[in-house]
Write a structure and sequence with these properties.
This protein has 418 residues and is α/β, with parallel strands linked by helices. The chain is built from twelve helices and twelve strands.
C-alpha cells in the first residue's frame, strides 16, 4: 500500500498550510460546506470577458509622497529635508511647481501623453501610523475607528460578481504571497493566487501533481467541508493548469520592456491573463520596500524606478495588444512619510501621500490639492485633502459601473480622473 500520499486537508488551518508551495488553490479563501457554496453561487450570469478591469498596485511599507511628487518651488520642503530633498534641477517637471522624482522618467512620459493621473495628498481622518492597521483601513475602506471583516473589493464581488465563471477563470486574482485583505468577502467567490516570484517548471509540475492527487482522494471524509474542499481543489487544478499554460505561451507586445524584477514579471503575468480573455475583474500586485526609516535616498529611488519601469512596460504591452481601453491601474500605500527627514536620513511613518492612476481612458494630470508644508514643525504630519474613499468611489462608479454607496456604506463625491 502506498503510504506517501498527503491526505486531503479537512480543516481551515490545514487547507491554508499549503501556501508555502505557491499553489493557486490557496487563494480560494472562503471555507464553507458545499450546500452553502452551491446556494451562494446559484446560476447568475458570469461577468463578460470584455468588461473593464482594475489592477491594484500596492506600495507596501508607506511610500514617501514628497519625494515622489516633488514640490520643487516650496522652500519649506528643502528646509524640512536638508539631505533627502530632490534638487529642483533634477525634478521631472509636471507643472510650474511640481515634478516627479528623476527615477520616474517612464511615468513622466505617460503623464505628458495624458495617460497618467496623479491624485495629491490622499489620506483619511484620524490617521493610524501602524502598518498593519492602516493597511487594513485602506483594504477594507473602513473609518479609522471602525473594523470591517470584508475588503472593499470583496464587497464588490459580493454585490456585483455573484455569478460563478465556472471553469473559465477567477473573478479576482492576486500575485502576492497571500490573499490580500481587499479580497475578503462575505460570500464565496472563485479567486486565485499566483506565487509572487513565479515558479520553476519542476515546482509547477510538482504542484499540479499534488493538486491532482488531492482532488482525486476522498480522504475518508464524507462531510460538507470535505466535499467543498474537493470541489475547490478540482476548480483550482483546472485553473492552475490553464493559468500556467497561458503564462508559458505569452509573448509581450513589441516595445513592452519588462525588467527582471518580481514586480515587472507580476505585471507581465497580469497582461498575459488579461490578453487571454479571463473574466477576472480585479488584479492585485504588490511592490514592497517603502519603509525607509534610515538612509532612504537610494532604496526609495530604486523602488520608484522599479515601479515606473514596470508600469510603463505594462501600459505599452496593453496598448500593443489593443487592451489598453479595458484596463485601469491604480496604486495605493498604507500611508505617506513625515515631511521632515529624521536624524538617520530617512523618514518616519506619516499620513497623506499621492497615488497614481494609469490608463488610456484615465484623465491625466494633477487632481486634488497639493500638501501644505509651510509652518510645519519637524514632528508634524501632513493634513490630507482627499479622502481615499473618494478614489474608490470614482473607480466603482465610473470604471466598474457599480454604485459605490452600496460598497462603501456612504456617499463619497467622485473625482475627475476617469
Amino acid at each position: 500500500m502506498n503510504t506517501d500520499f498527503t491526505p486531503l486537508p479537512v480543516t481551515r488551518r490545514e487547507f491554508f498550510r499549503w501556501g508555502g508551495r505557491g499553489l493557486g488553490l490557496l487563494a480560494f479563501s472562503r471555507f464553507a460546506p458545499s450546500f452553502l457554496v452551491q446556494s451562494a453561487l446559484a446560476a447568475t450570469p458570469a461577468p463578460e470577458k470584455d468588461r473593464s478591469v482594475l489592477v491594484l498596485v500596492q506600495l507596501a511599507g508607506g511610500n514617501d509622497g514628497l519625494n515622489t511628487v516633488v514640490p520643487f518651488e516650496d522652500a519649506a520642503y528643502y528646509n524640512l529635508r536638508p539631505t533627502l530633498a530632490v534638487p529642483k534641477a533634477q525634478a521631472l517637471r509636471l507643472t510650474a511647481t511640481a515634478g516627479l522624482n528623476p527615477a520616474c522618467a517612464p511615468l513622466a512620459a505617460l503623464y505628458k501623453s495624458g495617460k497618467l493621473a496623479i491624485v495629491q495628498n490622499v489620506g483619511y481622518p484620524n490617521p493610524n501610523r501602524s502598518h498593519f492597521r492602516s493597511t487594513e483601513i485602506w483594504e477594507t475602506a473602513s473609518a479609522a475607528d471602525q473594523s470591517l471583516s470584508t475588503g472593499w473589493v470583496g464587497r464588490y464581488l459580493d454585490n456585483y460578481c455573484a455569478g460563478r465563471p465556472g471553469l473559465e477563470g477567477p473573478v479576482a486574482l492576486h500575485v502576492t504571497g497571500e490573499t490580500p485583505q481587499s479580497f475578503q468577502s462575505a460570500m464565496p467567490h472563485p479567486t486565485f493566487g499566483l506565487a509572487a516570484g513565479g515558479l520553476g517548471r519542476q515546482q509547477q509540475s510538482e504542484n499540479l501533481g499534488l493538486l491532482r492527487r488531492l482532488a482525486a482522494h476522498d480522504g475518508g471524509h464524507a462531510d460538507g467541508n470535505s466535499s467543498f474542499l474537493r470541489a475547490t481543489l478540482m476548480d483550482a487544478l483546472v485553473t492552475e493548469e490553464k493559468v500556467q499554460g497561458i503564462l508559458a505561451a505569452y509573448r509581450p507586445s513589441t516595445g513592452a520592456d519588462y525588467a527582471g524584477s518580481q514586480f515587472a514579471q507580476a505585471l507581465r503575468n497580469v497582461a498575459a491573463l488579461v490578453a487571454a480573455g479571463l473574466p477576472t475583474r480585479v488584479y492585485f500586485v504588490s511592490l514592497g520596500g517603502f519603509d525607509n526609516h534610515s538612509n532612504q535616498a537610494n532604496p526609495h529611488t530604486n523602488n520608484l524606478r522599479t515601479l515606473s519601469e514596470g508600469l510603463a512596460a505594462f501600459q505599452a504591452d496593453l496598448e500593443g495588444k489593443k487592451l489598453d481601453g479595458q484596463v485601469l491601474t491604480m496604486t495605493f500605500s498604507e500611508f505617506g512619510r513625515r515631511p521632515a527627514e529624521n536624524q538617520s536620513r530617512g523618514t518616519d511613518h506619516g499620513t497623506a501621500a499621492p497615488l497614481f492612476v494609469m490608463g488610456s481612458r484615465a484623465k491625466g494630470g494633477l487632481h486634488g490639492t497639493a500638501p501644505l508644508l509651510s509652518g510645519l514643525a519637524p514632528n508634524q504630519d501632513l493634513t490630507f485633502s482627499t479622502d481615499f474613499r473618494r478614489i474608490y468611489a470614482t473607480v466603482l462608479d465610473k470604471w466598474l459601473a457599480t454604485p459605490s454607496r452600496v460598497i462603501l456604506g456612504a456617499n463619497h463625491a467622485p473625482l475627475g480622473f476617469v
